[in-house]
Design brief:
heterodimer, A: about 280 residues, mainly alpha, 10 helices, B: about 325 residues, alpha/beta, eight-stranded mixed sheet, four-stranded antiparallel sheet, 12 strands, about 30% helix, globular
Amino acid sequence: MIAPPRRVRRGRPEWLRGPALIGVIAIVVWVLIALTIPLWTPYDPLASVAPRLQDPGWPHLMGTDQLGRDVFTRTLWGSRTSLPVAFVVILASVIIGTVIGAVAGYRGGWVDAVLMRFVDMTMAFPPILLAMAITASLGPGVRNALIAMVLVWWPIYARLLRAQVIAVKQREYVESAEAIGVKRFTILRRYILPMAYTPVLVNATMDFGQVVLLTASLSFIGLGARPPSPEWGAMITEGATQFYSWWIATAPGLAIVSVVLAFNYLGDALRDSFDVKGVV
Amino acid sequence: MAGGAPILSLRDLRVTFPTPAGPARAVRGVDLDVFAGESVAVVGESGSGKSVTMLATLGLLPQAQVSGSVKWGNTELVGANVDTLRSVRGRRISMVFQDPMTSLNPVLTVGKQMTLVMKAHQPRLGKKELRAKAVDLLHQVAIPQAGRRIDAYPHELSGGMRQRVMIAMAITNDPEVLIADEPTTALDVTVQAQIMELLRNLREEKNLALVLITHDLGVVAGNADRVAVMYAGRVVERAPVLDVFARPQHPYTTALLECLPRLDLRKEVVNSIGGTPPNPANLPSGCPFAPRCPRAVDLCSAQEPVLVRMGATDVACSVVSDGATAGVSV
């Protein structure tokens, strides 16, 4: 019997459905806003544009804060801090975690033991607490908060990748490559990493939301972005003192929720699609 | 058997794996010489230490304690550093593994993998040369349409084809010794014959010495010059191939041969050896084969026999070498 020709899949991949699709749309919208907001911003995010503490309505969709700034505009501008910071934190953590985890897993022995004890030490603390401590000692500010977050975040990927590398390096094709003299770095890069990387990618996607949340948390307690800059966590701090003007904190809160949810949906779908549990 | 000095020489090679149940002594003093261009078969049951011996030869057992000596010419490989080992692996001594289905990198094309192997020892070759050489190698291992197959991924090839690719990769850097660890076990019988013929041809063309690890005495008969029979981590009989089949000395070799179904004898039932090989973490005292041996006497469980020369055969059995000479250490 002649097998039917393999159907060429076009268009939307299979995992991009339901929540994942919503997540991707939300992410794309937020990224577009972050990239283009200076071109079409409704108001100046730093200037008083209306009487203070106005209710949500037209033309100030989410009202105004105690200085008369447009809350909706500031919330949109907030994406220009949160998204790049989260992106840099994740990227840097993945790179550092990959190098450390790959070396630890592949070399094994005392190298592995030393690196992993370092990882254990970092992971023994709740990330927010450690990030707070590091930021506080470096001095408040977005840049220092970012450094602190990278420092607390990379061990996750190092540990994850190490476990995968250890599993993959015991496969026969790796031993076979060693037996015919392929260089160790080549084996690690071309034979082991491609088979070990999926969980790191999935986790990095999921963690994006967590880092957005952590950024906002640090700013909320005054360690990240400082007022008057429009940053979600800092805005919530300001809103918290205006108890009866609920919209000041609600708008950035909703922004955080939407970003975190979007990345969680996407990460979930990617995990199911890659079947991460079946990788090992 | 060729004269002169062996190109690969194992002396008193011992491999011990630390296990929770105590040290597992997988290889316990193996002596083996490989001469240029010859074919040596290492025969034994699963767990007899034949594969471990060869992996230890190439230093591929980082988690094991290896002692004794493995000499490539004048280079000692036991305890050698990674760079020395890597300069030998693939270039001097190469290896083909048992299961071609799992021994190729699934995410790289055949050509790319071969290129990486070439680059390991010949870093200066250009892209076109590498590709041309890879195609040529695929021709040598009789892969049809080599120019197209070079861009195939392993999952697009059959088992026999993959084993040919494995062999092509193993001989990429013109090694002098090829260790083939049960190269045909995972293949069906017609393909087995083709692969063995390929190995035989390569041996003749390239004057390649072959160390054939197998439990299949049928494969040994047609493809080996000399045979070393291993049991419980030691060589118990070492002889030219004809002597092994015509005059097996060790009771274990005899028993193995009796397990072969034969066309020339009318026999309804295929024999098997009763019992199981001993646990390497808990070996019996004396000869490890004694509990399963039909000819065992009291002496056997008291003393572990050493290899004694009898004609062209070296045999480690107290009964065969007649009690009197048994136990003499070499």
